[in-house]
Design goal:
It is a single chain. The chain is of the alpha/beta class. It is built from 16 helices and 22 strands. Helix 5 links the parallel strand 8 and strand 9. Helix 1 crosses helix 7 and helix 3 crosses helix 4. The longest helix has 21 residues.
Amino acid sequence: MAKTFKNFIGGSWVAPSTGTWFENRNPADTRDLIGRFPDSGAADVQAAVRSAKRGFEIWRRTPAPARGDVLRRLGDLLTTHKEELADGMTREMGKVLAETRGDVQEGIDTAYYAATEGRRLFGHTVPSELRDKWAMSFRRPIGVAGLITPFNFPLAIPTWKMFPALVCGNAVILKPSEDVPHTSHRLVELLLEAGLPPEVIQLVHGRGASAGKALVEHPDVPVISFTGSTATGSFIGETCGRMHKRLSLEMGGKNAQIVMDDADLDLALEGVLWGAFGTTGQRCTATSRLILHRKIHDRFLRRLVDAAEALRLGDGRGGYDVGPLIHERSRQKVESYVAIGQEEGAELLTGGKKPGGERLGRGFFFRPTIFAGVTPSMRLAQEEIFGPVLSVIQVRSFDEAIRVNNGVKYGLSSSIYTRDVNQGFRALQDMDNGISYVNAPTIGAEAHLPFGGVKQTGNGHREGGWEVYEFYSETKVGYVDYSGTLQRAQIDNYDD
C-alpha cells in the first residue's frame, strides 16, 4: 500500500485540515503509485503563516554566516543522497536520470553558493555631506516568503528560490507543484537534518487554485516567488500589485535556436536535439523554434529528422533518451497543437502522435515532433506548447533571423550557432532575451548567474546569481550623527 504523506507546519508533520488527499503517480507507468499527498486549503496556509512568522523572528536574528552554514551542510547531504533523489525525481516526473542527476547537482551548486553569500550580504558606507556624521546602508530580511514552484525541476527550482530567501534571513513557505510533491518532501527532510530551525520552513502541498491562491492572497506573506505559466503569473501579478507585495515571476518562453550557414552543423544538431527534446520539451528554456539559414536548411533538416526518429522513448530509469510528458492533460495539449500546425499549413515531418505498444501505452509518451514550412506568424511559432514539438523557420540572413527570434511575446532564452565572432557578439546584443547562448543550446543555467527573461517571460527580477539576494532582502539606510549639535540635512548648508 502506498504511503500517505503530510504537510510540514508548525514544526511537525500534520494532516491537511481538508481531510482530503491526491495521488502522485509515475507518468511513465501510471500503475506505479508513489504516494498520497495533502490536498490542502486556506486553513493550512493560515497555520503555515502563523508558524513562519514565529520562525522569522528566530531566524532573522541568526547571523547570516550561520544561516549559510546550514545550507553548506545541506549541500553535503544533497551530495550524499544524489542518486536516491535523482531516481525519485525520474519516477515522479519522468525525465531521464542524466537530467535528474543534473537537477540535483544544480541544487548542490546553489546550496554551496548560497552558503558563501551568508558572508557577502554587503551594504555600503558612503561619505556624509555633513561633518561628524556617518552614513551607511545594509541589507535586512523582509519576512515570510511564499514560494510556488513547477514540476519540471522538482529540486533545482525550489532551491533557487528557497536558499537565497533563507540566507537573507526570511522564513519560507513552499507550495510545490502537485505533480512533484515527493521531491519537496525529501528536500524539507534534509533541510531539517541540516539544522534549519523547524518553524523557518513550512511545506504545504495542494493545488494552485486552493493552496497556491491562499498563499498569494495572505496579507502576512509580503514576498511571493512564482515559476509557471504566463496566465497564472498574470493573475498573481494583479493580486500582488494590489496588495503591494514584492513579486518575482518566471513564466513562459518561446525560445529559438538560430543556425547560420557558417555554423558547425554537427554541434548545432546536438544542440537542437538536446534543447527541443530534453525533458520532453517541458522546460521554460526548451528550444521551440529552429531558425535555419536557407543555405543549410535542407541538409540540416534531413539530418535532424533522422536523429529525432532515432531517439528512444521509455522510462527515464531504463537508459532511454526521452521520457513521458507529466500527465494526460499535457499530452492532449501537445496533440491539439499538432492539429493546429496541420491546419495552418505547416508540414509535419516526423512524430505528431502517441507511440503504440504496451510498454509505452502505460505512460504519457509522445513522439518527438518536427514541423517544417513554419512561418513566424503561425500559432506554432508564437505560442508556448511545453512539449516535444519543434517548429522550423527558414530565413535568408542574420538580420532576418534576429527579427524572427524577437518576434514573439516571450523573451527568456535564445541561441545562435555561428563561427563568425562578430555575428556572435551582435546576436548577444540584439537578441531580445534574458539569456542568450553562442554555439550552445537554449537550455542550461549556472547557479552563480542570474536567470530570467524579458517581456511576458518575467517582471524584471532574476532567479540565481547575486541579483536574487537583492530580491529577498531590502535596503535600510542608517545615519549616525556624533557632532553633538543639530545638523539639518537637505538644507542649504554651504556658505555663500
